[in-house]
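Worked example 3 (structure in, sequence out).
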């Protein structure tokens, strides 16, 4: 199954993109849910009591930052919270979504879809660097902060059910997180596919529900668990992959911004997708816009084909995906789709990245959701080289180790694509 869009702004066969953070009415933000940031030093018990005294209900009391998510029943309770001397900010609990291009699934039959007893090395893994002995992620923990992971998938044995904001289990009930996890660390065995860092230890952190939806509240809860436990588990969590996001600014939820800063200070590198809206800028996408987050844009992995007489040549490997968000906040690019072909009708058709399917076997998906886990696997391989590396060290190595910097990503022929002036290159594993 492929996706199509006109390379020249013509009418496409269907709408391809679900822009990051664009929610149908069913998933509209609940205006009565808020994140309340208290002054530093206010204890969790005191925060809970303060919320109750204001007439609101505490939902999640965070430990890594001085904050609480709350349910506010009326304006009177909201004003009471805003008027407290120990409260720094009261902000809406904004909706967060999986950062996957719509209509981007293919071959998704349980136990099938290209899966089976013959292992495939996906084109994205080939492009960023096939794992080898000594560079396979061994001894490094990677948290998959997503819709969960299929804990029963034969190509993800040993994945740890770490945390769920939706029920007692981290089991994936949507499929997005399983696909992402496979890109990071599908095992090197005789079946399905191999990931970028197949020997890494995966920790499942479920912050999105069966519709691929969550909020700042659930995202912060998952990150709060990682911050509290990253060095208590073995191997320690050094990398977080977040193929999700929403529109926003770095200051629209100060408590969440501070939580990301705390993770970085604790030695945990956050890798995030840049977004799937080519008209947007990664500086307006959360968490991609946060300082010290490694934001990843999408490219093609291999050359495509071209049947359009108005386009000269095919869409080459390392071309910016027509759906990718770009901007100066982007650290690096990586494959978010296998290829783009141009049809006789001059529409771009995307072939997604081959990875794991919820329920078994493999499937294909496209999006910056798929580019981010390539870089998360690369980061695990850097931390394997030297456990003393800081997140800043690894971000630096990813930049200096890029393939074709100054040349790639190549410009997309799509009229929707806007070049930001920086060709950061395609990520390469050490």
């Amino acid at each position: 199954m492929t996706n199509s869009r006109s390379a020249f702004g013509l009418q496409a066969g269907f709408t391809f993109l679900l822009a990051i953070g664009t929610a149908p009415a069913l998933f509209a933000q609940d205006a009565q849910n808020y994140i309340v940031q208290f002054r530093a030093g206010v204890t969790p018990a005191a925060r809970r009591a303060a919320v109750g005294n204001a007439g609101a209900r505490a939902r999640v009391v965070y430990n890594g930052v001085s904050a609480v998510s709350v349910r506010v029943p009326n304006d009177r309770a909201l004003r009471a919270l805003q008027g407290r001397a120990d409260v720094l900010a009261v902000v809406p609990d904004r909706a967060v979504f999986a950062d996957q291009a719509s209509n981007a699934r293919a071959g998704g039959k349980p136990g099938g879809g290209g899966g089976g007893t013959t292992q495939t090395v996906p084109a994205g893994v080939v492009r960023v660097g096939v794992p080898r002995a000594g560079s396979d992620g061994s001894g490094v923990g990677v948290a998959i902060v997503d819709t969960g992971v299929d804990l029963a998938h034969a190509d993800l044995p040993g994945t740890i059910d770490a945390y769920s904001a939706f029920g007692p289990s981290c089991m994936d009930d949507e499929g997005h997180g399983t696909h992402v996890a496979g890109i990071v660390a599908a095992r090197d065995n005789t079946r399905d596919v191999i990931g970028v860092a197949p020997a890494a230890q995966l920790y499942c952190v479920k912050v999105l529900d069966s519709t691929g939806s969550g909020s700042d509240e659930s995202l912060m809860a998952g990150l709060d668990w990682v911050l509290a436990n990253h060095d208590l588990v073995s191997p320690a969590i050094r990398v977080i992959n977040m193929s999700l996001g929403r529109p926003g600014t770095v200051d629209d939820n100060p408590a969440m911004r501070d939580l990301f800063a705390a993770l970085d200070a604790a030695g945990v590198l956050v890798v995030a997708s840049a977004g799937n809206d080519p008209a947007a800028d990664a500086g307006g996408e959360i968490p991609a816009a946060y300082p010290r987050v490694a934001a990843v844009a999408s490219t093609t992995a291999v050359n495509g084909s071209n049947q359009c007489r108005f386009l000269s040549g095919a869409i080459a490997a390392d071309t910016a995906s027509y759906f990718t968000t770009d901007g100066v906040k982007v650290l690096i690019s990586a494959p978010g789709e296998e290829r783009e072909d141009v049809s006789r009708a001059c529409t771009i058709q995307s072939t997604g990245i081959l990875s794991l399917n919820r329920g078994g076997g493999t499937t294909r998906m496209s999006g910056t959701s798929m580019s981010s886990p390539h870089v998360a696997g690369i980061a695990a391989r850097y931390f394997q080289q030297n456990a003393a590396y800081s997140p800043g060290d690894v971000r630096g190595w990813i930049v200096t180790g890029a393939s074709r910097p100054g040349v790639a990503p190549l410009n997309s022929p799509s009229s929707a694509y806007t070049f930001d002036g920086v060709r950061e290159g395609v990520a390469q594993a050490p």
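Notes: The mean pLDDT is 90. The two ends are 33 Å apart (CA to CA).
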